[in-house]
Design brief:
Two copies of one chain form a homodimer. Chain A is mainly alpha-helical and 100 residues long. Chain A has a single domain, classed as Recoverin, domain 1. In chain A, 50% of the residues lie in helices and 4% in strands. In chain A, strands 1-2 form a two-stranded antiparallel sheet. The termini of chain A are far apart.
Chain lengths: 100, 100
């Protein structure tokens, strides 16, 4: 209790639901690409790699994602926090939901 | 191309990545609970059911989630859009990330 390891392999016996496991996968994906500089942040280039490799279908439904990534600052220096990563995916997911 | 069915069973042959499938699960979870009134929105009571049933571990890491849900308005009438649902989960996920 009071501790959460949902971004790592869980060592305790608490069972996650399917939805929690799905969220864990999205969290882990952030950490998998956040390797350069501060590990709690993605650079724009890391985000681009993540999108190309992990979100090829989803990213089709975000208008001008490339432009958005360019606006984030220096490709190798700017720091993108988890909340920004989550918001970008949310925008893409919203796009998917609307286009039926 | 140009159409997205990531909130439904996919009928085309485009393969989703693990991360995209995970996002699809989180999207589908919204629709599973958004049954009353406008189907594109959750009521606060539907959100509470969703959190209790689907996010029992994750919700431990959001301070006063109950209070937050109460602030969303009339439990059976207020309409919570997908973006708000996504943001609440993001807050919880951020909480998980920070507490190591």
């Amino acid at each position: 209790m009071g501790q959460c390891h949902c971004h790592k392999k869980r060592k305790d016996s608490q069972e996650l639901t399917d939805v929690e496991r799905a969220i864990e996968i999205v969290i882990n994906n952030f950490h998998r690409y956040a390797v350069k500089g501060r590990k709690e942040c993605l650079t724009p280039n890391e985000l681009r790699d993540l999108v190309v490799q992990q979100l090829p279908q989803l990213s089709q439904h975000v208008c001008s994602l490339d432009e958005k990534i360019e606006c984030l600052g220096d490709p190798d220096e700017a720091k993108l926090e988890f909340g920004e990563y989550w918001a970008i995916i949310g925008e893409a997911a919203k796009g998917c939901r609307v286009k039926k």
